[in-house]
Amino acid sequence: MVNTLDREKEKKKIKCVVWDLDNTLWKGVLLEDGSVTLREGVLDIIKTLDSRGILQSIASKNEHNHAMAKLEELRINEYFIYPQINWNSKSSSIKKIAESINIGLDTIAFIDDQEFELDEVKYALPSVQCINAIAIHQLTDMNELIPKFITEDSNKRRSMYISDIERKKAEEEFSGPQEEFLSSLNMEFKISSVKEDDLQRAEELTVRTNQLNTTGYTYSFEELSLLQKSNEHILLMASLKDKYGSYGKIGLALIECSSQIWTIKLLLMSCRVMSRGVGTIFINHIMSLAKKNNVTLRAEFVDNDRNRMMYITYKFSGFYEIEKDGKVGLLENSLSNIQSFPEYVKVVIED
Question: What pLDDT does 272 receive?
Fold first, then answer.
C-alpha cells in the first residue's frame, strides 16, 4: 500500500536551488566593491548539493558578463545551469529557470539576502520555497534537500543536464526535418527487467516524475523489491544514450499480470526525453509482450492536470477508454496495430 502522506512529503523534495549572488553566494556587491569573495562554507554547500543530485542555478540582478566572469574566476561557474543574470524581477528569472529545466516551481528553493526580493518571489510564485541567506549554513541539513538515495543517475545529474543543453543548441541550429535530427543523435534505447541495483533509481523516478507519468503512483524501495520478485507483475526499466552521452535510466513501467488481463499500473518517462519519441517505443514493446502472451492489455490513467501528454501518447498508441471515474480512467488496447520501432533509434531489449 502506498502511503499518501509519504508520497506528498516526497513530492516536496527540492530539485533545484536558485542562488542570488551579491551578499548571498559571495560577500559584497560586485558592481560596487573592488572585489568579492565567496561566503565562508558556500563552496562546501554547493559541492554537497551537487553530489546529492540537486541542480543549482542563479537569479541575480547584475551585469551578466561581469558576473559570469567572476563565477569563472572563482571556479564555480560549472555548477550552475541556465543562470539568469539580468535586471528582471527575480520571480521572472526563477520561472525561466523552471521552464528551461522543465521542473515544477514547487521543487525550487530560492536563496536571497534581501527580504524585498524574497517577498516578491513569495507573492508571484507562492509554491517556490524562499530561504533567507542568513540560514544558508543550515541548508544541507534541511529534509527537503536530503534525498533518500543518491543513485548513479543523481550523482551525474548536472552533467546530464549540461549534455541536454548541448543537444538543445544543436537542435535549434539544425535546419532539416525533425526525424533527420533524431537520426543524427545515434540514439540507443534500452528496455530491461528491473534488477536489484535498479530499485533505488526506480523509487526515485516514481517520486520525481510528475508530468510524463500516467498515474502518479509512488512506490517505496521495499514495495518495488517485492514487485520485482512477484510472478504477478512485470517491472521494466528504460535507459537512453546518444552521441552526447547518457540520459541515464529515464523510464519505468509496472504491469499487473493475471492469466487473461495485463494492466499497466504505471508508465513514466523523464521530461528530458519528451521530444525523442521513446515513450511510444516503450508502450509498443509492452503491447508486443501482451500480444505474445495472448492477453488483453489495459492501462490505468490518473489525470493530475500536468500529465495530459501521456494520455495523448496512449491514445496515439491505440488505447481507448472503457471506464472513467472522475480523473481516474481505465483504457484498453485491441493490439491490432502495433507500430514497428522507428529507424532513427536503435532499440535493445534485455531480460
Answer: 82
